[in-house]
Write a structure and sequence with these properties.
The chain is built from ten helices and ten strands. With 355 residues, the protein is α/β, with parallel strands linked by helices. Helix 6 packs across helix 9.
């Protein structure tokens, strides 16, 4: 299907990619393909969060679990798609901002390869990680939106599935036990070790780089006299001011080594399967301390694609305790089209549907 055939789709965008005097190219593309823009949605404050809790504008509803958060930062976009208010919605993803709300709200959601879609006109948070993505309720529409940006996406050849077995030990036992048989049921796969040298190897690269980006982008703004910020965001910006240049330099080297290892493992046709988040969505009244603890544990999963600049798709595969739980697919560099085609075919073959 050509981009010109993606017609009459109603969509929303997160306010982080809000319309200003000039419309961001990421928004122009679906508009020129015939989509109809319905409006803008809320995000976490300055897109710096994983839960969708914004004290200035409120927390969007998670239609799949109303007593729990929708996930963030692209929270309003996920909420609107899950509620059926639009066909798809755009957002941004830095450390999980598309993938986590997709998992929490029972949606298909893609974080595209770093640099594949222009972030011009989008408010930056961590520029060496920020990417564009979108949500949909089915994999076919997720792919159709992808064709607007990438051109026609042909059916995928049978992928070489790589099951990151150690990644399934990171979630709480109930989630790991629910997801592992589903992952194995996607097709023949090879078990691999993603965290061969421990989770901290990845987190120690991600944390200083993202925090350095955050301080460089929003530090002066966030610490200006009289600035009113939520407790969680104020703490995050204050933490970003403490990052040492030597730690950033070491993390740059570590990032490249991890990327080389993962890209070599994936090759041209590999798809890695991992859980999307480590736990169920926190409750809407969860304290900031609980949010911080949750974020650090789920980052062990979401930082992989973020560090390696790779595309990742959440598949809504099941429910645990009445809440949606997602499974993720990660492809190699610029493998967005292959990943979208594989996600559609696997969802059809295994009847993956909105949880």
């Amino acid at each position: 299907m050509s981009p010109s055939q993606v017609l009459l789709l109603a969509f929303l965008i997160g306010v982080v990619a809000g319309l200003r005097s000039l419309t961001a190219p990421a928004v122009v593309a679906p508009l020129m393909a015939g989509a109809r823009l319905l409006g803008k949605t809320h995000t976490d404050e300055v897109a710096c969060g994983m839960f969708g809790m914004n004290p200035h504008f409120g927390t969007p509803i998670n239609p799949a679990a109303p007593d729990r958060v929708p996930g963030g930062s692209s929270s309003g976009s996920a909420s609107a798609v899950a509620a059926g208010l639009c066909d798809f919605a755009l957002g941004s993803d830095t450390g999980g901002s598309i993938r986590v709300p997709a998992s929490f709200c029972g949606l298909f959601g893609i974080r595209t390869s770093y640099g594949r879609i222009s972030t011009a006109g989008v408010m930056a948070m961590a520029p060496s990680f920020d990417t564009i993505g979108w949500f949909a309720r089915d994999a076919a529409l997720l792919r159709r939106v992808g064709e607007v940006y990438f051109g026609e996406i042909p059916p995928a050849a049978r992928p070489r599935l790589l099951l990151a077995r150690d990644a399934f030990d990171i979630p709480i036992p109930e989630i790991g036990a629910a997801l592992l048989p589903i992952a194995r049921g996607l097709g023949p796969s090879e078990e691999v070790a993603l965290f061969a040298h421990g989770v901290d190897e990845w987190l120690d690269a991600f944390r200083p780089l993202q925090l350095h980006d955050l301080w460089s982008t929003l530090g002066a703004w966030g610490t200006a006299p009289g600035r009113s910020l939520s407790e969680a965001v104020a703490e995050r910006i204050a933490l970003s001011a403490t990052v040492k240049p030597a730690d950033v330099a070491a993390a740059v080297v570590r990032r490249e080594a991890l990327t080389r290892r993962l890209v070599t493992l994936l090759g041209d046709d590999g798809i890695i399967i991992i859980p999307t988040a480590h736990d169920l969505p926190p409750r809407r009244d969860a304290p900031v301390t609980a949010q911080v603890a949750f974020r650090e544990k789920t980052l062990a999963l979401t930082c992989v694609a973020s560090l390696a600049r790779l595309p990742q798709i959440n598949l809504p595969v099941t429910k645990v305790g009445g809440c949606p739980v997602g499974l993720s697919l990660i492809a190699g560099p610029r493998g967005d089209e292959h990943l979208l085609a594989v996600a559609e075919e696997l969802s059809a073959e295994t009847r993956v549907a909105q949880a």
